[in-house]
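Hey,

The postdoc asked me to send both predictions to you directly instead of through the lab channel. I've kept everything plain text so nothing gets mangled by the mail client. Protein one:
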Amino acid sequence: MAPIWSKQPLKGAFITFHIIRTLIILPWLIVRHIPKSARPFPQWSLKLSVINPLARELFVYQTETRSNGMSTVESEHKKAKERHSLTNPADAGVYSGVLSPGAVKPAPVGGLWYPAPISKESPTLDDEKVVLHFPGGAFVLAFGQEMYGQAVSTAMSKHLKASRTFFAQYRPAVDDATRFPAALQDLVTFYSYILSLGFKSQNVILSGDSAGGNLVVALLRYLETSVELPLPGAAIVWSPWVHVTPRAGADYETCRNAGSDVLIPSLLQWGADAYFPKHERTPEELAYISPLNHPFQTRVPLFIHAGAVEALYAAIEEFAKQMTEIDGNRVKLHATDFTTHDLIMSYPGLGMEQEVKNALTDASSFFGL
């Protein structure tokens, strides 16, 4: 059931209350965290100590009002003009098995090109590396805006030498037509689109953060069984949400560092409630939705990043271990000390460019780029 604050006139009242509350707590957060001893970790900067609780406040607002941010994404896509691409579903045969159209069907989805889209004047794409990135959002929030896309693109071009990045916004789960496997169908749509432009599959690097990381793992699982699509050259997942259960909020509350990380239990519960299919889930569907304890064989090198003090770290570490133990897999876990959830999306505002460089330099070496 949606919170009472998600509909007018109570939604308007909650927004007003939230703005006033934020203005009040901001100076208090700054003063409170000036002493290093008062910070969640003495190694944290003042900026990180203040931004994390502010981010939680934003997630409270979005969760209580059911504001998923998709209207903002669509507005920015329009402003981007030729850098925006609306991608239509691929041929029906591409969506098989758990992705077979039923109540949930593939649909047009959009994303942003960085620094520019492919044009007729573009030279051959034979040697171009392209990053196909999927943002997080607990399956219910949209983060396909310019500020996030630019941050990801800048990091990928600098440290992975990717000539282009496509920042792809899949459908958030808002109704029965966008539950699982809608978002995963969208990833297949985007991947098919990238290949249709002429990029070689071995030059495509899949990337995803948080719930987007979950979806990249699911896409790898799917591609290993697909006869229609070739495998990409590599995959990076940032703080992937690998343990998604019907009790997501309660599960998160038991995690170490849950109180100091940016995520909140109610957001994850909203995401799980909205994303899980309404029917009784099959074992195959559960493996796609929650990859922890469902490892699989993949021929794609998989680089996993996690913040060493993020609440999801233990689950991510265990997932990496399980994947590593599968014969033939090439998997590497890179943990950044004293870093919280989703480094790739938050690093510009936190001044953590060096940490992103270290992670991507490690990934580049691991991939042999």
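Protein two:
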Amino acid sequence: MIYAEILAGGKGTRMGNTAMPKQFLMLGGKPIFVHTVEQFLMNTRIDEIIICTPEVWIAHTRDTLKKYIKDLSRIQIVAGGATRNDTIMNGIKFIEETYGLNDDDVILTHDAVRPFLTQRIIDDNIEGAIKHGATDTVVEAFDTIVHSVDGKIITDIPVRSEMFQGQTPQSFNIKLLKEFFENLTDDEKEILTDACKALVIKGHDVHLVRGESYNMKITTQYDLKVANGLVEGQKI
């Protein structure tokens, strides 16, 4: 089976003083995460959509979905974890307990606050996860990347043509990802906060899927203004 796991477990502290986590803020007349869910619902290859949200917001998430989406038969809501990786594994645990795990099951993990992903990106992630076992969505880095260990002095300036900016989805064969996480030490789990990085560090190839510059993550108030501009532009 092919699962989409929408990561809506964050508190969105960089958004500033808001009444609710950023994934529930309005964007073009709907909460941000609803736009994201709709993109996955449009893709008929996705069998189930797992939304991982803070436990105290589960009822709000369910009520919001009922308001904006008619058919919820492919959607499940699960409590998120303390970290991103914990949240991913909570979703996988739910899948295993509810449906069981097959050797060819894949999961697309995606930020709830990236509502502008395309069907092409979703399809490429599905194909990549089936073929390679692990994929990461990226775009080329157009600006020079500066590395600094202490945040004060340049440590290195990597070759720009070899640099990419990570987006989501990050997609995996579920059994592969589960095995890698179960073999991490507690110290590694603290350090390896990105699922793809965990696989790379452990020696597994992660293949690239090309994203889009507008597949942006809405993190700040400025991002939200830009996103609203994109939504308004789509109406023209």
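Summary for protein two, as requested: The chain has one domain: 2-234.

Thanks,
C.
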